[in-house]
């Protein structure tokens, strides 16, 4: 009897794991527009309800184990390291659904580009989102450094250097807007430049875009409202 119960338990465990894994397999190769819709639907629920449904559901032992040998994220998110900007929470998604690349100022260098290439080429993600956000400290620091003409030393200086093209472009417009408005424009410009760098600096991403295999979008997160808005 005990042996029979043990066998039944084993079969049920395998079935549960296989069922959960089927969900991940479906995520492989999700069309870009559908992937974007999934992200925005999850964000609207988070912003309106203040709930994160999928994190708790995806914390189950069976679900976690079903991801142990494979992953099929349906989207890549390039986001800032800001502690208020966790993509899994903002988009109400859980383990195995998003391939997240985070660095202050949501910029991309060789390591970040390589990470995106891996997600696109080997994991089947077809949507790449560059996600900027309101009151970004890294972009603000780049703006202030340019305004004062001071040089930021150390490794932080490399972040400022990467963001500076966006600040330079906004300042070249000669606007008399307030500092807050100008910094906001810098944040949007930075997202735009980073999105362009994905294809300019990565032949793999450029080829996937040319073939229509992936889509790159830019977006902006409002810290006050909790809403992610697609820019382009």
Automatic annotation (TrEMBL):
> What is any Pfam family matched here?
Pro_CA
Question: What are the protein's UniProt keywords?
Answer: Lyase, Metal-binding, Signal, Zinc
InterPro entries in alphabetical order: Carbonic_anhydrase, Carbonic_anhydrase_CS, Carbonic_anhydrase_sf
User: What Gene3D superfamilies does this protein map onto?
Assistant: Carbonic anhydrase
Where does the secretion signal sit in this chain? 1-22
Q: What is its EC number?
A: 4.2.1.1
- Quote the record's cofactor note: Binds 1 zinc ion per subunit.
| Necessary cofactors | Zn(2+)
In alphabetical order, the GO MF annotations are:
carbonate dehydratase activity; zinc ion binding
Species of the source: Chlorobium ferrooxidans DSM 13031
Q: Which reaction is this enzyme known to catalyze?
A: hydrogencarbonate + H(+) = CO2 + H2O
Residue positions binding Zn(2+): 80, 82, 133, 136
Q: What does this protein do?
A: Reversible hydration of carbon dioxide.
The GO biological-process annotations, alphabetized, read as:
carbon utilization
Family indicated by similarity: Belongs to the beta-class carbonic anhydrase family.
Q: What's the name of the protein?
A: Carbonic anhydrase
């Amino acid at each position: 009897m005990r042996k029979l119960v043990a066998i039944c338990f084993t079969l049920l465990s395998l079935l549960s794991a296989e069922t959960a894994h089927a969900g991940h397999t479906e995520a492989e190769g999700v069309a870009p527009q559908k992937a974007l819709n999934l992200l925005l639907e999850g964000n609207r629920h988070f912003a309106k309800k203040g709930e994160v449904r999928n994190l708790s559901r995806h914390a189950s032992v069976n679900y976690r184990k079903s991801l142990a040998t494979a992953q099929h994220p349906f989207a890549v998110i390039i986001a800032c390291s800001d502690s208020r900007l966790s993509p899994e929470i903002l988009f109400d998604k859980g383990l195995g659904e998003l391939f997240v690349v985070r660095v202050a100022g949501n910029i991309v260098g060789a390591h970040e580009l390589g990470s995106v290439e891996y997600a696109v080429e080997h994991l089947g993600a077809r949507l790449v989102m560059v996600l900027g956000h309101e009151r970004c400290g890294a972009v603000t620091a780049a703006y202030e450094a340019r305004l004062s003409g001071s040089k930021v030393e150390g490794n932080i200086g490399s972040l400022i250097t990467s963001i500076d093209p966006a600040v330079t472009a906004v300042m070249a417009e000669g606007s008399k807007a307030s500092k807050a408005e100008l910094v906001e424009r810098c944040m949007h410009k930075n997202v735009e430049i980073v999105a362009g760098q994905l294809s300019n600096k990565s032949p793999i991403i450029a080829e996937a875009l040319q073939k229509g295999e992936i889509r790159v979008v830019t977006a902006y997160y409002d810290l006050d409202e909790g809403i992610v808005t697609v820019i382009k």
